[in-house]
C-alpha cells in the first residue's frame, strides 16, 4: 500500500463556480435587490464591480469580505432565516453543478474528511453545505453583537492564503496537521492557488483561464462538473 493510502483522506471543495455554477455572494445580492432589501439603483453597479475585481484577483481580501457581509447588518440571524431558506431553495439549488452532488457523495462514501471551504460568509453558505451533506464548513465569519449582525467580519478571512491558514488551524483543533492527511482540493479560481498548492492532489474544476494555465503548467487534473 502506498504512503498516501495509509493516511486518512481529506477532501476540500471550493463552492462558487466549483460545486455551483455561479457565485453565492453575487446571487445573494441579486436576491436581496429583487426582494427590495437592497436598492438596485445604488447597489447593482457596486456588486458587479466587486465580482469583476474578484475574478481578476485585484480586490483586497478585507474589502471583498466586508462588502458582502455588510448586507446582513442590522438584523438578527433569526430575522434573516426565512429569506435565507428561500434563497437556498429558489436560487442556490438551481445553480448546483450537475455532476457536483455525485462527486461529493463519492468522497463522503469513501470515508473522506470532506470540507467545504469558501470565501463567502458562513451565514449564507451553511445551508448550502447541509444541502450537499457536508458537515464541515470553513467560511468567512460574521460578527454578531447583542444578537445582531454588525456588518463586519471577524477573524481570518477564508480567502486566498487565508484558506490555508484557517484550514491549518481547524485541523490543529482536531489533532491533525496537513501532512498527516492525504489531501485533495477542488477549485475553479486563481484565488485558490494557495489552497490547491498546499494539497497533495489539486483538481481544477471548470477553471477560469489563469487557473487553467497554472494547472497545465503544474500537471494538475482539469475536470468539469457541468
Count of distinct structural domains: 1
The helix count comes to 11
CATH 4th-level superfamily: HAD superfamily/HAD-like
Looking at how many chains there are and whether they match, the oligomeric state comes to: single chain
What would the average pLDDT be, to the nearest integer? Answer: 95
- Estimate what percentage of residues fall within beta strands: 15-25%
State the CATH architecture.
3-Layer(aba) Sandwich
| Gross geometry | globular
- Number of E-state strands: 7
Structural class: alpha/beta
Classify the helix fraction into a percent range: 40-55%
Indicate the CATH class. Alpha Beta
Q: What profile does the largest beta sheet have?
A: 7 strands, mixed
**Separation of termini?**
34 Å
Order of helices and strands: HEHHHHHHEHEEHEHEHE
Task: Point out poorly predicted stretches.
Answer: none
Sheet with the most strands: spatial strand order:
4-3-2-1-5-6-7
Describe the structure in your own words.
There is one protein chain. The chain is an alpha/beta fold and 226 residues long. The chain has a single domain (3-223), classed as Rossmann fold (3-Layer(aba) Sandwich), CATH 3.40.50. Helices cover 50% and strands 20% of the residues. It is built from 11 helices and 7 strands. The chain has helices spanning 3-6, 15-19, 24-34, 40-56, 61-69, 77-92, 100-109, 122-132, 161-173, 193-198, 209-218, and strands spanning 9-13, 113-121, 136-145, 148-154, 182-187, 201-205, 221-223. It has a 7-stranded mixed β-sheet, sandwiched between helices. Helix 3 (24-34) packs antiparallel against helix 4 and helix 6 (77-92) packs across helix 8 (122-132). The longest helix has 17 residues, at 40-56. The radius of gyration is 17 Å and the shape is globular. The mean pLDDT is 95.
